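Hi team, as promised in this morning's meeting, here are the two structures we talked about. I've kept the exact order from the run log so nobody has to guess. The first one is mostly here for context; it's the second one we should focus on when we meet again. Sequence first, then the predicted structure tokens.
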Amino acid sequence: MPRDGNVTKTKIMDVAQQMVLNVGLSGTSVEKVIEQADVTKSTFFYHFKTKHDLASALIERYAGNDREHFSHFMAKAQQLSRDPLQQLLIFVGLFIEMTEQLEDPFPGCLYASYCYQSGAISSDMIRTVAQMMHYWRDNLTDLIDRVSARYTPKIPTESYQVADHLLTTFEGAFILAKIMNEPKLASEQLIQCRNYLELLFEQST
């Protein structure tokens, strides 16, 4: 495909993604995307046969970017420290730094947008979201297992539960910041999450 074709496809997807985040899948129409992307119908349908195809491409791209961010931040945390607790805290800290740099209007979370209207999308798209949630849970659980092996938690807990708490905070912070129109709320909640981890695995003096 010509280079310009890739640029146009990306433009269509960027416009559509922002629309889905703002008004949901049901409020996103092919006609509105075509208008805001300033492309012709033939151009749109060259890249996407249906709205369903567009929605599928959006969540696949979003999940791919999410996995890339996770892997990059985890690798950086492991590079900066050999201590599993410090790796965990650095990992969360990198996401705090990322959310602090997000500009208003806050982007929100495409996963949540799809789950809210799961009846309007295919099971394959919901499966993509579920796979990413398991990706986060499994990788965080592995790291928290290593943290727990070195630092006994202050209260009895399971590693996967701590991982789910982290994931819930990450996703919930994005949703709350979007709904309440308070961009700083996301980083503030992630800071609270990091504080919790420091207290949970605090070393005895």
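And here is the second protein, the one for discussion:
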Amino acid sequence: MGKLTGFNVALAGLSQGKHSMEFHLGKQFFVDMESSDIQDADLDARLEIDFSHGVYALSFDIAGSVTLICDRCLGPLQWPVDTVYSLTVKYGDERDDSADGVLVLPQSEPSLDIAPILYETVELEIPLKHIHDEGACDSAMTDMLERHSAALPDGDDPVDPRWNELKKLTDNN
């Protein structure tokens, strides 16, 4: 994961007031973060920092799309991402991220690596099941799945004979 550059924000060097930065998250970002879900990405991330009285209010705004693999047809699935995330950062004696939305950095860390924050924010926008809308799956793969899937037994409908043999085992007990 150490291949990323350009995502360290030098908080200690910022002057009081508002600051903004922009980042582009593409395929290489997710390869470097070792993501197994995201195959490609075209995301724009904007970071707004409001520094006042030793407290950094960070606001992340991420928009674009990622390419996933459909769990049903294994085809590419475009998934829109449009999310915001806020985080308060301040300096203290040691690193502490136990409070929701608050990060305490030790004085020895003059900068914050925001790559993991960006990555996790995007990952949380991805559903557990990656499935195209009904009818949008790859038709060749859908046809193949239908040809090779077994019909579920429905009353007196014919059943694969292997199931009958297995059923005999449970009937004897």
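Starting points for discussion:
The two ends are 54 Å apart (CA to CA).
The longest strand covers residues 76-92.
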